Here is the input.
Amino acid sequence: MAAADDLAFDPWDPAFVSDPYPAYAGLRERGRVTYYEPTDQWLVPRHADVSALLRDRRLGRTYQHRFTHEDFGRTAPPPEHESFHTLNDHGMLDLEPPDHTRIRRLVSKAFTPRTVEQLKPYVSRLAGELVDGLVAKGGGDLLTDVAEPLPVAVIAEMLGIPESDRAPLRPWSADICGMYELSPSEETAAKAVRASDEFSAYLRELIAARRKSPGDDLISGMIAAHDEDDVRLTEQELISTAVLLLNAGHEATVNSTVNGWWALFRNPDQLSALRADHSLIPSAVEELMRYDTPLQLFERWVLDEIEIDGTTIPRGAEIAMLFGSANHDPAVFTAPDRLDLTRTDNPHISFSAGIHYCIGAPLARIELAASMGALLEKAPTLRLAAEPERKPNFVIRGLEGLSVEVG
Here is the structure.
């Protein structure tokens, strides 16, 4: 059994968070699985294993469909965190079949490819308007001026959240997502609980209004959706799904945008190639998501004992699949530490895989392509104005801001 105590893997070290990829290389060289005592997790760094385990039904995002906390050898969350866990545990990302299957099928009835495709003109127009504002000022913070408002507005528009109600959405999301970091503090938990309470209360009122007066929005569609036995989403499932769609629908896109442009500024040859040939945008979106992955780690519980490379991992253990490492695995990607916007063989797993594959991946691709296209077209001289600061978070990888100049 390999141990990580002599490796550079340290998710609380700012130097590691700034650039975890050398440490990942060490983990991949060490072996297929490594026990990490500080978080009591088994780290899986290689692409083939991560890809396979995401599809392995012996693992689960939850264990409560089969075991009690006591049976599974785990401690129940403290009662003061109940609001967060009620919200989180009823979303399809943290459910397993049959509940996951039922909820995803019902949500998919409202969240169709046709629905997403119809959003393209709106997304393009909004991206253009946001970039116009940035250009008019001669620059600004790419995060707050373009990267953040675009996906928040798009998913809020889809859900049917009025524009006047959208200001708290991003702060609520940020506070809730703090709980997805490793070993979150009590202060982080308190913020998540408060945000869960406030967000849930708001959505409860909105859902009640949509029941009385349905619209053509996603919340109305999810209220109306039912299966062949006329089974519908419960109110808690509606609330949890709406929060999940908002949080997942913009966190990754925001961070992919700023991580991507920061990577382009550090690789001027690739930026020049992109400026010269806008047809590279689709492959650039995929490559930038691979190169600096917005979600670095995804966890699974071991529901039934598994074996990885001769190491037995018992039921009740937790596996941490390192997406960022898998996306830099030289067994899959040629010269993985090189940014190559022309890379065509790019099976990155930034959107996960298996039954929990990101339902919003097509929308994220549309948003990322729209903002990139608008910036290339309207701000061809876009340049870095100041070195950015990396957020201290490890799991959800992003920047505090990205200061840019135009003109």
